[in-house]
Amino acid sequence: MRVAFPAKQKEPSAFVAARSTGELISFVRNNHEVFGTIVKILENSVIVKLSKADARRIGAASEMTVVSHKHYTVTE
Predict the structure, then answer these.
(1) pTM of whole model > 0.85?
(2) How far apart are CA 43 and CA 53, in angstroms?
(3) For residue 2, what are the contacts with CB-CB under 8 A and spacing of at least 6?
(4) Along the 76 residues of the chain, how does pLDDT read in single tens digits?
(5) Which residues contact residue 22 at a Cβ distance below 8 angstroms, ignoring those fewer than 6 apart?
(6) Which distant-in-sequence residues (6+ apart) come within 8 Å of 5 by Cβ?
(7) Domain ranges of the chain
(8) CATH level 2 (architecture), domain 20-74
(9) Could you give the CA distance from residue 33 to residue 75 in angstroms, rounded to a whole number?
(10) CA-to-CA distance for 64 and 76, rounded, in angstroms?
């Protein structure tokens, strides 16, 4: 017999709760500051769309990348 337990749901931090898709963020990767737009918000990170030029500068395989909530700032 197999018993399954529901996943514990925790409240997101105020910073994460305030994020929305379409926001512009900046972060540093491979010693380059790059900018991108939030496409999807996850529990511990965001999926970001970069420009082709920024993707090339940081050596990303595509124009999409994952960035931890701890490693970006929201630009205004």
Answers:
(1) no
(2) 28
(3) none
(4) 677 777 777 788 888 888 999 999 999 999 999 999 999 999 899 999 999 999 999 999 999 999 999 999 999 7
(5) 37, 38
(6) none
(7) 20-74
(8) Roll (2.30)
(9) 12
(10) 21
